[in-house]
Amino acid sequence: MTTTEACRGLRRIVPVDDAPDDAPDDATIDIIAIHGLGTESPRTWEFKKRNGDGVVNWLSDGDMLPAALPKARIYTYDWNANYFANAPVQTLLGHADTLLGLIAEGRGSQTRPIIFVASCFGGLILAEAIIRAAQEGSAYKHILLSTVGIVFLATPFQGSDAAKQARWQVLVKGIMGEQASDKLIQDLEQKHDFVHQRVQKFAEIANAKAVQLPLSCFFETRKTEMLRRILSPGWAKRLSGSVTRKILVTESSACLHGFPRQGLDATHSGMNKFQGPECPNFKLVKDTVRKLAGDASVVLKLRKNSTVKGHWIVPFGRNKEFVGHLLKKVLPSRDEDDCQRTAIEGLGGVGKTQIALETAYRIRDVQPECSVFWVPAVDATAFENAYRAIGQQLKVPGIDEEKADVKALIKSALGRESMGNWLLIIDNADDEMLLFGDTALAEYLPFSRKGSILFTTRNHKLGLRLVESGNHIIAVEEMSRDEALKLLGKNLKSSQMSDTKSNNALLEILTNLPLAIRQASAYMAKEQISTARYLKLCKSSDEDMVKLLSSHFNDRHRYKNIQNAIATTWLISFQQISDHDALAADYLRFLCFLAGKDIPHSLLPPAGTLETVEAIGTLKAYAFISQQNELESYDIHRLVQISMLSWLDGKGERQEWTVKVLERLNDIFPWPKHENREEWIRYLPHTQHALQLRKRTDDEEATASLLSKVGESFRKLGKYKEAEQIHRQALQLREKVLGKEHPHTLTSMDNLACVLDSQGKYEEAEQMHRQALQLREKVLGKEHPHTLSSMNNLARVLDSQGKYEEAEQMHRQALQLQEKVLGKEHPDTLTSMNNLASVLDSQGKYEEAEQMHRQALQLREKVLGKEHPSTLASMNNLALVLGSQGKYEGAEQMHRQALQLSQKVLGKEHPGTLTSMNNLANVLGSQGKYEGAEQMHRQALQLSQKVLGKEHPRTLASMNNLALVLGSQGKYEGAEQMHRQALQLREKVLGKEHPSTLASMNNLASVLGSQGKYEEAEQMHRQALQLREKVLGKEHPSTLASMNNLASVLDSQGKYEGAEQMHRQALQLSQKVLGKEHPSTLTSMNNLANVLDSQGKYEGAEQMHRQALQLSQKVLGKEHPRTLTSMNNLASILGSQGKYEDAEQMHQQALQLREKVLGKEHPDTLASMNNLALVLDSQGKYEGAEQMHRQVLQLREKVLGKEHPSTLASMNNLALVLDSQGKYEGAEQMHRQALQLSQKVLGKEHPRTLASMNNLALVLDSQGKYEGAEQMHRQALQLREKVLGKEHPDTLTSMNNLASVLDSQGKYEEAEQMHRQALQLRQKVSEIR
């Protein structure tokens, strides 16, 4: 045992002699001093003199406290103030029992008065000791009754004044410094409310008439230097400042309300040590202790005279397992001028009776002279019987006479001042008629200024009427989770609560209601089941839940003749509401069918304003509903809903109210549009809930109509799967109720087909649209507007499948009929015109599409106005077809106009506005204005996430577009990351086979290819192709696009034969499906020509490029961007054949046209300039080539940025032409710069990076730097073998270059061997092809 451990406990320090503590002496009082955190006695009480001249201990030095109180015995109580490993707060307060035990043992039979001096946290230990000594039956009650005073020295009753999350951290660290216990701090923060309750309890006991304990609180007035607690003195001095100085325990924390307080001129650590007898601080403390000692006899006398016990009539024993809220004060002495009235209100089962019961016992503990009477107000008989029992105990004359007016006698008896203090508890004061009706029990409530009445009630209105002021009503708050867990485990074994997740989930269902928890706990204890099993029973069905809520259990703390089940408890309230407020009862019936949270007031059936206010007030008064702050919406208790539905079942009213609720919802739920989005979004969860609760209804047409609205709501939200499910229910119900050919049934069929189309289920959508069209033609006629709508919808799904000819034919037919039936200017006719123009655009019939969009726009401006949303849609569509033709400036101008009008008319966050923003961003990208495009796409994405949600299909489309523009800028990593995110979300939201999901897969594969990740790109393109063949069919345009993309990535890998074969297949199918002159067909032709070029099949490539150019000039026009691309490709193949003059002439022509059409700084224009420079280089026109390459490089740096892949390509090309002119140093410098940037931007293994490495090695070779050239060629070869494969053409080029540099160094054998290997591999690859 260490010295410190040996000194712990209660130790007498004055007088210091060998006499035992119980030996006779002349001492008249005991003083016990208790130290605080992180210290021990005697150090904590000692003042260190300067220059090491010793210490002053004010408790033991003869000229200090012993001189002031010469007949006092002085003790110190030492406790372990540094160990807080487990349950620190409980450990801290647990020292109270040790203190009490040691005092009792040390004092023996002595009855001397006691004065305590408690420093810092020692005061919390002492307060807990007083509480425990005051408990009923405590063996230490004599210690409490012997205590005549307490001096608190900076005890932190409320922690520090720091922010809530640090109120104890600052204090403990300020006291203990680096030795501070994090566990103690954390536990104090978590148990702050518990500590506060214990302090309040102590204050109540000290104030109690039976105790009347004198206290004096001292607080510090000087700030503590915080850094000194955690740093060395030198560092603390250097860093000190006002911000590091703080009063640790402020006056508000150190002092208890209503008790004397004094400040000491000291820091926190100086509150318990004084430098000598003349120290002002010591004098203040000494005088206080001396006064307490002088008043000891008076305190003991008053205490003895006040120990008369009052009367006690409480029908229940104390609930020792009680957890939860405690009422603050209902003591009669709280208001000396009135008979105090207080009401505890809350939902049935929330624990009001238990709170009242604990209040009764607490008052008995702290004020035993106060009488406590308990009266149940469940009915008139119980009330009168309780009054009679009171009269019998008080021995009221005449109380037992047969005709005695018992209630009047008790009212009179308790009204006499001679009765003394009393508390009357009226439990279950819920029935207004009982209290204020014919029986008028409220008239018999007594009045006495020495009395206090406490009511428990479920009814706020009644509670207010009883206490007459909202300030006297205490609403019972929900139990904390810790309290609820403790209550749940009261009767259970640990094995029954081993599943923490189930424990919390069960309490969530029971909403921490004490009665429901006790009922559940009793059931589990009886049936010996776990919380997990009980939770499963609760979730199995509402019927099972009701049975569990209705199961009776024994509770000796509740009335024996009243059912204890929570559901039964509420049924009493339901009946009371039904009897007294019919509209409130109807509202309660209505609300039990809705979702429990945020129920809009507007959903309630209409009634008079005053009646509605009163009905809502009634439901709020019974705590069945709560109103959200400042919102016209309500929450209803989930368990109340379940119980209410059971009540309706029992009364045979559920079917009737199901119909009423669904009819009301159908009446008020609008057809979903963006303009009323806020309204239907709020109604949607409640409508869903009501529909789920329906078993059958007498008005199934209203149900079907409501289902249609819900289905459309889900479609608007992009939740297509849910929309399909709901629309199927609506269709089935209408077929059953109205028949398969009823117009409403056909509307449901059309709605379902549209949502199938949205999911990419084109075949089923087409089939259903055809069926709807046929039935509408039969039922309504071929020219009915609904029939024409079906025709239009069918045409749209044909368009989605790439069946353009049939779609065009059907749109033309619909347009002709609508012009005939509705007129040429009818909005529906103009919609058909717009749809026809769109399918013409899909076919590449741009001129006719443009003409028709212009016509639709003009007519919509005339008929609907320039700012109508449909007019803006036409403007947008016209801009799109202009973009398809490469008329980018006109397209941009029109998109900007559409966006501005859309923002003005629809608002900046309308989905239509976001679509305009997206389209404008796309046309900016088409012009190479990538920064503006990216900025606009980011803005559109953020707004879409805000307005539509992060997983809405339109949001995912915005994400996809942003990823595309990132890829266009060479920001491949960001593009890949975003494409992956879009793909994952589309798979989740739309499904793995949705066309949009497959588009994301295709885009991700493309950006992988751009990074040289060819194997992964090929694998993904193959997967996309297979899925598109399965979902869309082998001949769908999107399938052909996948085929083309796969062929391109094969080409990039040098798999030319497979690429050529696939390009030929794609071309043949495109010619068959889209036609020989469709723009996509021309793209396939161009791609095939490119792969022929890669194989050296120049004649075939030239022939195909010429054919593609001629067709493009015919179909798209001579100046269309795609036509100019064909011209550029043809020029390149001419250059590959050495036809440099023709190539130069054609590149010049392409450059001039691109400058005219696209502008001098468009990326495509710069590509033409680059290609022209290359062909000049090929002709030996080095100066012109160099000049043009420099110009391209400068423009690309300006337009695309210095790190864009195209900029790096220009840098590389310029270096090559410098090399060709023998400007080796400049060439080498530029190649190195290009290589470094390529490694940074594209990665060290990207094919373009390896090309840069190869070019740098070549220029080193040209300068005779053979070793460096050889080393770099070897590195390039190894990486190309790894990335591209040993037989890739680029790999063979590296092999050949390495062999050449070996030859230059005279390493002839190795060079020959490598040349032979390269030749063999080229022959092998050629033979395979």
Automatic annotation (TrEMBL):
Q: Which SMART domains match?
A: TPR (SM00028)
Give the TPR repeat ranges: 704-737, 788-821
What Gene3D superfamilies does the record tag this protein with? Answer: alpha/beta hydrolase, P-loop containing nucleotide triphosphate hydrolases, Tetratricopeptide repeat domain
Q: Which organism is it from?
A: Podospora pseudocomata
Cytoplasm is among the record's keywords: yes
Instruction: Supply the alphabetized keyword list.
Output: Coiled coil, Cytoplasm, Cytoskeleton, Microtubule, Motor protein, Repeat, TPR repeat
> Sorted alphabetically, which PANTHER family does this protein's record hold?
KINESIN LIGHT CHAIN
Protein name, per record: NB-ARC domain-containing protein
Q: Does the keyword Repeat apply?
A: yes
One Pfam family from the record: TPR_7
The similarity comment for this entry is: Belongs to the kinesin light chain family.
Main localisation: cytoplasm
UniProt-listed InterPro entries? AB_hydrolase_fold (IPR029058), Kinesin_light (IPR002151), NB-ARC (IPR002182), P-loop_NTPase (IPR027417), TPR-like_helical_dom_sf (IPR011990), TPR_rpt (IPR019734)
Domain NB-ARC stretches:
336-491
The entry's localization annotation reads: Cytoplasm, Cytoskeleton
